[in-house]
């Protein structure tokens, strides 16, 4: 199984906070000294904050934190707690009047398996910052992955529990790490052999027998067979993969954006199908260092560690909310 963590990248800290009974939480990725940031939104149902700021043509060059949260759009409130924490530490963009922390955010929908009335809020975002450190972060049912699930062609009926995962790689003197919360419509697959790791399980949905006697039904194959049927309306519209790739390679905003784009290829390798109309896949990229590196190499490594982190998110998740987990 892949090893390493996004915190192997100098200048990156990770903190989690969650409500285990309500099955929701948030994860903060801090760059206290600032990091050049980029973003790529590939899914068609995103929930985000401050992503326009990361456009290479816009003014601000650095961000100070990234928030990943459950709770659907309500979870964006947790970013206010991250800002409050950073302001207390006197970290932010210097306007000449005040230092304003720059904290882009993305959310996933986890209201369906926990308590829909409890979501990440500013206090939870603040607690995630207090917990942030350079240590290897926990994986599975923590932070933004607390209420994550995968394989939701039939909603939660035959889905599986997923979570949050991290991985890193070193090559040519640079470090590239990824951290991702996996809440996808599709199945998580191992790119090495194409086998499903977690996803749509075989079973019965009313009169429909799904997947025969196999462990996994295979979402893509089921979609082929169900094309045109009203049963496709059962498909969950509450999916997304949200994550961050970070590196000590020196990048401009435009280059960080390209790395985020290439990191999305890791989603396409490890999730089938990916980037659907029912997902809001959003990946941020952060550059914290001054190491000279070939951009194509950095992006290629980012795609690889993103796929590795997705596999860990699915493999480390424990059963919760009535959904079985591999962990």
Notes on the structure:
The protein is of the alpha+beta class and 327 residues long. It has a single domain, classed as L-amino peptidase D-ALA esterase/amidase. It has five helices and 18 strands. Strands 1, 2, 3, 4, 7, 10, 11, 16 and 18 form a nine-stranded mixed β-sheet that branches. Helix 1 crosses helix 2 and helix 4 crosses helix 5. The two termini are 13 Å apart. The relative contact order is 0.22.
Give a quick set of tags describing it.
alpha+beta; L-amino peptidase D-ALA esterase/amidase; 327 residues; 9-stranded mixed sheet; globular
Protein topology:
Elements: E1 13-19, E2 24-41, E3 48-49, E4 62-69, H1 78-88, E5 93-94, E6 99-100, E7 105-107, H2 122-130, E8 149-150, E9 160-161, E10 164-171, E11 174-183, E12 187-189, E13 196-198, E14 203-205, E15 208-210, H3 219-226, E16 240-249, H4 253-270, E17 271-272, E18 282-291, H5 295-316
Helix pairs in contact: 1-2, 4-5
- CATH-scheme architecture: 4-Layer Sandwich
Radius of gyration: 19 Å
Number of domains: 1
CA-based shape: globular
CATH topology: L-amino peptidase D-ALA esterase/amidase
In brief:
The protein has helices at 78-88, 122-130, 219-226, 253-270, 295-316, and strands spanning 13-19, 24-41, 48-49, 62-69, 93-94, 99-100, 105-107, 149-150, 160-161, 164-171, 174-183, 187-189, 196-198, 203-205, 208-210, 240-249, 271-272, 282-291. By secondary structure, the chain is of the alpha+beta class. The chain has one domain: L-amino peptidase D-ALA esterase/amidase (4-Layer Sandwich), CATH 3.60.70.12.
